[in-house]
Amino acid sequence: MRSTKIAAIAIAAASVVVTPALTGSADAVTACSSGYHCYGEDQLEGNGSYPSAAGTDLKVDCLGVSDPNSQFANWEMWFATNTPQVSYDTWVEEGMTYGSLQSGQVGFMWYWADERPNGSYSEHYIQNASGGSTTNVSVYYAGSNNDDVYLGGSYVGTSTGNGSGGLYANAGAEVTTTNTHVNGSSNNFQYQNSSGWHSATPNPYDNSGGLWSTYTSGSYLWVNTGCNTPAASTKPEATSMPSNAEQVRRILAGIGRHAASRTHESKPSSIRMAKSTRHQALSLLGGDKVNGNQAVYAVQLKGTFSSFRRAPQHKKGRIPAGNTLTVLVDAATGQVTDWSITNTSADTLTRLGPVTTLA
């Protein structure tokens, strides 16, 4: 939510729900995996809120996993979108992630992502994150089946073709492993519908089997496993792309292969590249919009891809897959800015111009 529209809401001490770290079942705890994520969140599900916007103030004092090369921990808000439901949910999410990035490096980043009714999944990196500070995240329905995404009151992107407003919103933790440390809060969790802005009422959800404690009070949520190290800004390693064209092609092929392995495809049938700008590539290959428009290499692979971030929320089941993986790489820094999984039989990469085969 943009601070110009919503006044801060004081924590209501009289409205308290505490979920202690109970023993839980072994199945619940060991279910934290790439196919079944563990959540600790405050939720607006099932109350008929149908929000046109939602926002909350996010803060982490620690957020980490023991193996950041294969796992992740998120502290975020979800905005489920009002679409004809298919075999999995449709939504926009925004927050902080710690773990392996699609570039193959480990980072602690602000990001946003969406799952749309056309079966696509897209993820967009915003900026480096750090612990100990509070930042607002918000999503607003913008009309014409589009949802605008804001970080700290500033526009960062638009999820396109993603339904006529919201179904519900949730905020909190998401992890793929029990070997995690989370200490985070969501404050002033609010949503807007036809009757105006409303504060979330305590409605905690915890499928972790005792992995953490949760505490809610009014529109405030706290999730804690105990921390051994504080959250810190973990920047992807600074790089720059070489001027030699052959070296660039080798680097892009390596990024493509790593991105494929991160999305469960060990042998992509092809890896190709075209030069573009971030706006043009997203518009022609994915549809989302972002506020950065630097020169990028669009690397596209064919195979069978499924994202480890893409498990249907609160449910076990097969992770949706697509036949096309697209990765945008900053032409100056070599960092991945965006990536997506789609299903298409068309040769969409040629829309950007001349195509180079990398593998």
Write the layout of secondary structure elements.
Layout: E1 16-19, H1 26-30, E2 38-43, E3 53-65, E4 72-81, E5 91-100, E6 106-115, E7 121-128, E8 135-143, E9 146-151, E10 154-159, E11 166-175, E12 180-193, E13 196-199, E14 204-206, E15 213-217, E16 220-224, H2 245-262, E17 270-277, H3 278-285, E18 289-290, E19 295-305, E20 322-330, E21 336-342, E22 356-357
Antiparallel strand pairs: 1-15, 2-11, 2-14, 3-8, 3-12, 4-5, 4-11, 5-6, 6-7, 7-21, 8-9, 9-10, 10-18, 12-13, 12-16, 15-16, 17-19, 17-22, 19-20, 20-21
Short description:
The chain has 359 residues and is mainly β. Helix content is 9%, strand content 45%.
- Determine the N-to-C terminus distance: 44 Å
* Portion of residues within helices: under 10%
State the strand order across the main sheet.
14-2-11-4-5-6-7-21-20-19-17-22
Average the pLDDT over all residues and give the rounded result.
86
Describe this structure as you would to a colleague:
This protein is mostly beta strands. The protein folds into 2 domains: 209 residues, Jelly Rolls; 113 residues, no CATH class. It contains 3 helices and 22 strands. The strands form 2 sheets. Strands 14-2-11-4-5-6-7-21-20-19-17-22 form a 12-stranded antiparallel sheet. The radius of gyration is 20 Å and the shape is globular. It starts with 15 loop residues before the first strand and ends with a strand. 51% of the residues are buried.
List keywords for this structure.
359 residues; mainly beta; Jelly Rolls; twelve-stranded antiparallel β-sheet; ten-stranded antiparallel β-sheet; 9% helix
